[in-house]
Amino acid sequence: MIEDGLRIVGSAQTNRAMEAELVRIVKKALGRRPVAPKRDGTGQLAYPWDDAIAAVALTYHRTSTRVVRDLYASSARRLEPLYDELVADVAGDGRSWTEGLASISVEVRRVDEFAAGERQVVGTVKNAIVDGLARRGKRVRVDGERPDGLLVARLDDRGRMLVGLDLTKGTRTRRGWRTEAGEAPLREHVAAVMAMEARYDQRKDLVVDPMCGAGTIAIEAALAARGAPVAAGDRSPPLWPDARPVVIAGDRDLDVLVAARHNASRAGVDVIFHRGELTTLDRDHLWALAADAGAVPERGLVLCNPPWGERLEVADARLLYGALGDWWRSLRDFRAAFLVANAEFENAFGARWAIKKPLSSGPLRGYLFVYEP
């Protein structure tokens, strides 16, 4: 069966953030609102195919990891009928999705419930695409290293095998500006999700990350504020070129700050860097730093990914998270969002969250805690 859909793919539990961001950037870029999507699990959004919206998502959508054009669907449960259906669909497909493609590669995801292994599914889909295109007089070769087009096959929530063209040509969890990541770096798209879940508004919010590490959260917040292209080196114009976000990144480690400053320079954003402990970033000092930058934000927002998981002993975690809670309360009217995967955080922080939801940036199960003053 021929499909024609736009699929926005991200991490689990990010549907809400991805949908909100797509509305924001499409309204700015195209002057209209996308239709409501179908949610496929907790990390995928399905829309009708729209060339213009796909182009906007591919260029500017920061909270997703892939942008895919759904092309074909099959309810086959075995390899032979899957091949036959795909060959027939591809051969009879008059769309121009193959334009400019001289080579392809295929990868599969979420096919554990199919009656064949991953390699067999890859081979079947690959052969069906090549043979179906050949019947249309279109010759493509298979290139596993540098293909012109990447096709992704996966089972959807209804058990159908969906085959789509991955417009991003693989996951874009790394933008290209972060050359010095440090220990256990936060994935860039997760930082973008944090900002969306915390309702970051660059017109009103001063953003501060007091434990910035490689600067990922601060840099992503600054890039999102301008509506900058996702990929480093993309020369597409930002959606909000006149935006002047106020973003402060602090850390006590000088070497870490030097690396973060280098990353910010590569990303092309202005971030205010501050060396010192939590207590040196008191409320008055934060507003003074903003004033020195020529800005007077209406309110403050803490976005932070403190050390978590296996990197901390229990006693150290309680001390760190308790100090972090005391510092946040001293800011009085700042909202906050923290991403952690340590069971000690919730009690040690000492405040009642407004939102708690699963969100991970690696193998450990993490949670995003959002606090209101």
Give the helix/strand layout:
Elements: E1 2-9, H1 15-30, E2 38-39, E3 44-48, H2 51-60, E4 66-74, H3 79-91, E5 103-109, H4 118-135, E6 141-142, E7 149-155, E8 161-166, H5 188-197, E9 205-209, H6 216-226, E10 246-251, H7 254-267, E11 272-275, H8 283-292, E12 299-304, H9 314-330, E13 335-340, H10 345-349, E14 355-358, E15 367-371
Parallel strand pairs: 5-6, 5-7, 9-10, 9-12, 10-11, 12-13
Antiparallel strand pairs: 1-3, 1-4, 2-3, 4-8, 7-8, 13-15, 14-15
Helix pairs in contact: 1-2, 1-5, 3-4, 5-6
Tell me what you see in this structure.
The protein is 33% helix and 22% strand. It has two domains: 2-166, VC0802-like; 188-371, Vaccinia Virus protein VP39 (Rossmann fold). It has helices at residues 15-30, 51-60, 79-91, 118-135, 188-197, 216-226, 254-267, 283-292, 314-330, 345-349, and strands at 2-9, 38-39, 44-48, 66-74, 103-109, 141-142, 149-155, 161-166, 205-209, 246-251, 272-275, 299-304, 335-340, 355-358, 367-371. The protein has ten helices and 15 strands. The mean pLDDT is 93. The chain is an alpha/beta fold.
